Amino acid sequence: CSTADLGPISLNWFEELSSEAPP
Amino acid sequence: HSTEQTEIADLPACESLNPGNLQLISELKNPSSSCSVDVSAVWWERAGTKEPCIIAACEDVVSLWKPLNSVQWEKVHTWHFTEVPVLQIVPVPDVYNLVCVALGSLEIREIRALLCPSDNESEKQVLLKSGDIKAVLGVTKRRLVSSTGTFCNQQIQIMTFAEDGSSKDEQLLMPPDETILTFAEVQGTQEALLGTTTMNSIVIWNLKTGQLLKKMHIDDAYQAAMCHRAYSEMGLLFVVLSHPCARESQAFGSPVFQLLVINPKTAQSVGVLLCSLPQGQAGRFLEGDVKDHVAAAILTSGTIAIWDLLLGHCTALLPPVSDQSWSLVKWSGTDSHLLAGQKDGNIFIYRY
């Protein structure tokens, strides 16, 4: 399978989701 | 869509599997007739020395065994439970003289810490939590995460132990609107905790801030899936699930474990590896354990099956010994051994 199906990937997903999520 | 895109692990015939992948090295005999419920290998500190010990749990007693040499073990401590039976052992990483146990009948009613204070060496147990406990996991940095209640009344709590296991600090995580089924720490991303829910979702928290970062619905084929391992690599989340409710199909055989890849940014997921039973082997998943790239499962037939998740196929089958079905299987947390338990409480230690 291809990871292209999963959409754009971010190496810093944890930090980015933490900055976006409500405190 | 996941089943179409899943790579099916090879289905070698039973005869081609090498039983030599598992070598019996030791056995712990249970002198009591109590039913065995769990086993775990933990580091335990005695007189200033850390030793790789084995904790064995029956319904009414938990025993700590220390190694005398490479094949012999000695029982050094026992904790007795007369009111509520023991359900499972909950090891807490980075603590060397404490282990937790979950007690209850069908569901967890209590979590207790088991200790041996160094001053008098007598066994001690401390009630940490009671109530309608749905899931519990020991996580790195001496922490214990647990969920109580369901849906909107759910409370998710982290306790942090001191190095000697004595005092504790408590913090709450933001609950999702679905009941948590299992927790898994995310290797490769410090402070990330993953949970599976009864509604086929995977949730991620930030353990430091308590934030709920994402809720991702996965395919309905993953119903009641338990998460055995999660790791983050190259921006993707790899999750090993087991399928107690999976149906056998002609194309995929009888699935036991599945490796799922999730993009946590987009919540898109795809199945990449399906570990099915070797051809000719009957049964379904009963319970199992995953460590690094090896997955072990007890099948309803009483046999233990092991898969290498890198090779993508079953590497060993261990049929019942002395006509006794296997009822427990755990990878040792202290070395590369496999701990296999029978209902009568006897524990066999294999080198894999």
How would you describe the overall organization of this protein?
The complex is a heterodimer of chains A (23) and B (352). Chain A is mainly alpha-helical. Chain A has one helix at residues 13-20. The model of chain A has no long low-confidence stretch (mean pLDDT 88). By secondary structure, chain B is an all-beta fold. In chain B, the strands form five sheets. Chain B has a nine-stranded mixed beta sheet. In chain B, strands 7-8-9-10-11-12-13 form a seven-stranded antiparallel beta sheet, with no helix packed on it. A four-stranded antiparallel beta sheet of chain B has the order 2-28-27-26, with no helix packed on it. In chain B, a hairpin with a 5-residue loop joins strand 26 (326-331) and strand 27 (337-342). Chain B is globular. Residues 1-6 and 8-16 of chain B have low confidence and may be disordered. Classes of the chains: A mainly alpha (23), B mainly beta (352). The A-B interface holds A 1, 3, 5-14, 16-18, 21-23 and B 5-7, 174, 189, 191-192, 204, 206, 209, 211-214, 232, 234-236, 261-266, 268-272.
